[in-house]
Amino acid sequence: MPGHFEPLPGGGAAVALDEVEISIIRSLAVQLLELIGPGPGGDVSDDPLAELFAEGPSEPPSDPVLKRLFPDAYSGPDVEATSPEQAEEQRAYSSEFRRFTENDLRAGKRENALVVIRTLDGVAAVGEGGAVLKLSPEESKQWLSSLNDLRLAIGSRLDVVDEEDTDLLYRLPDEDPRKPMVMAYLWLGGLQETLVETLMP
Fold first, then answer.
1. Is the pLDDT of residue 175 over 80?
2. Which contiguous run of DSSP H or E holds residue 80?
3. I need a labelling partner for 187 at 20 to 30 A (CA). Which of 67, 83, 91, 169 fits?
4. What span, in angstroms and rounded, lies between the C-alpha atoms of 74 and 22?
């Protein structure tokens, strides 16, 4: 089980983590929470109905990591405009889509990151600085989503766009200042892959 998730009887997943690994994942999840920020008007609203109908931003975020986490719905390499009019139409559609979906997307990503933090805070020690993290089926899905968000965030900082960029990361020299971030990116990818396998029927 060290370093990878394994399925639990009856659903869910488990992984053995040491203190350093727990600290790294927890720290990254906290940073992700800080980056995503609170909901509209903060996380707690006096009027839940007003929060339900609150409109989100209409423009994409300026931070490249947030742009990766909350991309435009009607633009990008798979959706190419053939004229200035079509490009403007795509921007308008993306803006409208963002207004009505981004708040919910942010709330979901915050909740997933909080589940990562809470479950890590609740792990039971197994000696010599290690612990076994056991997740319910629902927590496993939330972990999977959050691991994906963490990898997108780190990948954005490393300018990872496609598989070729990932291959280049393996060849970085040890003295490269990006090496620790690269190691975290690749390690989280391994965790994510094994967690996917545990959730497959």
1. yes
2. none
3. 67
4. 38
